[in-house]
Design a protein that fits this description.
The protein is built from 12 helices and 13 strands. By secondary structure, it is α+β, with helices and mostly antiparallel strands. Strand 8 (192-199) and strand 9 form a beta hairpin. The N and C termini lie far apart (43 Å).
């Protein structure tokens, strides 16, 4: 099979998020190596300041049999992830990962939360404040966390994002506004942070649950996965926040997995992805983030969960490539059938339980 590994090339752009954009190069190399090892003819294509040039290359001749889509942004703008998926749809080139609608909904966090709330899925209360809004959060109940409304990779999130009074709240909102986007103000849930990952469509295979183990660097500080915790390897908060195997009572694990699968169905996630959940002390699984095309770095939590389930990294990459070709992209009937059956079967997958 001819496979093109597509990735963004905006890592050279200075400014916020540069470290996370650089990571996609390492992921692209790892994915290409795994696919070549499986016997595929692989090319790697970077998308720079002229996306049309990359799209022209994808038209061939001959066009690839599959695009392994790792494009997360264009020109430093995370909304480019959705745009590239839409372009692949128009080209009718099979590609891995979620479609533009799912990617766009997950990126625009307030819209994703509104959909989840409509479908009865727990997500923390929230307010959206656009740049320049004079209106404050009505009757705030602290603590709150302030996030960029349309970013991923924890960009714009630091210890200062969790606030306990109105002065800190205004400061955190204005910090997000400087990123030229609205601020999402959310009720802060101080609980266990769990990651529910899946691969496949019908059925979705749920990988063993993982969670963030917050260490000494978080003593007296908010237990959050900040940008530094994700992308600055020497930062104390990065060293002290590994993802580890999670062991939950059976009932709690089932609630967490059911919530994550329902989330994937509502947003239309496909092929692979991850849902981040905060489990409150009362046992409520709150969805705090959805990552349809999550990080595929060999050392990331997704790959580690796959290894725990018996899928080596090369096998994981090959599985994603295979499931992406199960049904034609852009076929609404097939997509509906796939989505309807995915959750039911995945609920039977093995979880890490303590009995």
């Amino acid at each position: 099979m001819r496979v093109t590994v597509l990735h963004n090339l905006d890592h050279l752009s200075a400014g916020p998020g540069q470290e996370s954009r650089e990571d996609v190069l390492r992921v692209a190399e790892a994915v290409a190596r795994a696919l070549r090892g499986a016997g595929h003819a692989v090319s790697v294509l970077g998308v720079g300041d002229d996306p049309l040039r990359a799209l022209a290359a994808l038209r061939g001749p001959p066009p690839p049999d599959l695009v392994f889509n790792l494009c997360e942004s264009l020109r430093g703008d995370a909304r480019g992830e959705m745009a590239m998926a839409a372009a692949l749809e128009l080209l009718r080139v099979p590609y891995t990962g979620s479609d533009p609608l799912a990617l766009g909904l997950a990126l625009h966090k307030d819209r994703a939360k509104a959909l989840l709330r409509h479908h009865g899925i727990p997500t923390p209360d929230w307010w959206l404040l656009k740049p320049g809004d004079a209106e404050q959060v009505a009757d705030p109940v602290f603590p709150l966390i302030v996030k960029p409304a349309r970013e991923d990779g924890s960009l714009g999130i630091s210890f200062d994002s969790v606030v306990g009074d109105e002065v800190a709240l205004r400061s955190a909102i204005e910090a997000v506004w400087r990123l030229d986007q609205p601020a999402l103000v959310e009720r802060y849930i101080d609980g266990r942070e769990l990651m529910v990952s899946f691969v496949g469509n019908a059925p979705r295979r749920v990988l063993p649950l993982r969670e963030i183990a917050f260490g000494p660097a978080f003593t007296g500080r908010p237990r959050i996965v900040s940008y530094r915790a994700k992308w600055i390897p020497t930062a104390p908060e990065c060293l002290d926040s590994p993802s580890v195997s999670s062991v939950l009572p059976r009932g709690a694990a089932e609630r967490v997995v059911e919530t994550a699968l329902h989330t994937c169905d509502v947003l239309g996630c496909r092929d692979y992805g991850r849902v981040d959940i905060r489990l409150s002390p009362e046992g409520v699984p709150y969805v705090i983030d959805v990552n349809p095309n999550c990080d595929l770095h060999p050392e990331a939590g997704f790959a580690r969960g796959a290894a725990e389930a018996g899928l080596s990294y090369p096998a994981l990459v090959s599985t994603i490539a295979e499931v992406a070709r199960e049904m034609p992209r852009g076929d609404p009937t097939a997509a509906g059938e796939r989505s309807a059956g995915a959750g039911r079967v995945a609920r039977a997958d093995q979880l890490l339980l303590d009995g």
